[in-house]
């Protein structure tokens, strides 16, 4: 690592090699860039696990206006409407761009793009690949394109540990491999590190996705936004495997229903039933489980033997667990899946720290609001990568510091943070538990152990959840079960979160009626 990095001084550094990071690197070509991946390319990202696809208004009965309306309805009053409009309008061209890069999307018998239906979408607009292997196909094509692009220097198995700040701006990246630490001198950094799912015991995310990008940004002084909003996918395969295999929403889009151990379809009276918004379905499943029931996804009437053809990856997960969806229902439960919160960015992906951009799940653009509309995330990553790249390229690097020796930091690990987060920041929260979480997380966040960075992220999430004294989208407070009006997106810094611990009122919050 150290032998080559001196020749790379001044190049933009992209941290993360999922779809957002790979696309940003490709969009910056032929500008020389460094792409840093904590694992072999695509190996620790959530992107390859994405099953559903990419949302884009391509059908003859569809429009970007309808896509925008569905996005904002799911976002429950917190979407940044101009940003959301700009992203959904760019979605069809993003699909074309991916095809030019070698992505092979599924086609219908007439040769057009096959369009699937997912919850809270009013039209069939989900472009997919390999049935339920969209993320894997995107990663395959984009990794090949990156490998073939001479301007992209890839560092694999290298983890970014700190951002260096000089005069309030980005000055470099401290990175570690298994054997060494080094400083990459740069005044332009793009975070594309994914989400926070592995802060939870039950998650569909890779176990390395515990918010390291958010920790990097927070410790550099950046503002973060919407941290209280964690989307729990209602249908993760309920087996001991971690991460939990995802049973895509597209399965319900094909007609699958949720039943319990006695065969009761307990969502039949819910508006939208199995295709209601994810937060609504996740809470309904959570409550049914809390009553002592088991919950299953039943595909026997709608897909029967076609299940393995339409959803080959899910069928493989099921068969590994000894389940045949053609003849028996699939056991499921909610699991942490996607973080609507992230680094607060403008419409070019710039954070509050000069020289720092964010793209993909680690960023909070305002598209998702309080509850992400299914399959909008891959679309957001591809669309925003172009805007971020254009902004980075226009901010030509001029000020490069002479970096000293790198501090050797312990590899990060959630440790006890997982227990705290799983118990207090789940599908249903309450003020007493959140206050307890803040009190336990603050000393961990300021410590020197391996769990300090995960604890810092979790602390900011808990403070944000405590401050939002209402229920909205994916954030549900049992002590404040209704909306308030008006509402707004909230920003937070790590210093403010640490100060909040000292300022907490020990008296219980007043309960809403």
TrEMBL record:
One of its GO terms (cellular component) is cytoplasm. SUPFAM superfamilies: FAD/NAD(P)-binding domain, Succinate dehydrogenase/fumarate reductase flavoprotein C-terminal domain, Succinate dehydrogenase/fumarate reductase flavoprotein, catalytic domain. Residues 13-378 form the FAD-dependent oxidoreductase 2 FAD-binding domain. Pfam families: FAD_binding_2, Succ_DH_flav_C. It is found in: Cytoplasm. The keyword Flavoprotein applies. Its cofactor is FAD. One of its GO terms (molecular function) is L-aspartate oxidase activity. It is an enzyme of class 1 (oxidoreductase). Its EC number is 1.4.3.16. InterPro entries: FAD-dep_OxRdtase_2_FAD-bd, FAD/NAD-bd_sf, Fum_R/Succ_DH_flav-like_C_sf, Fum_Rdtase/Succ_DH_flav-like_C, NadB, Succ_DH/fumarate_Rdtase_cat_sf. It comes from the Bacteria. NCBIfam families: nadB, PRK07512.1. Belongs to the FAD-dependent oxidoreductase 2 family. NadB subfamily. This is L-aspartate oxidase.
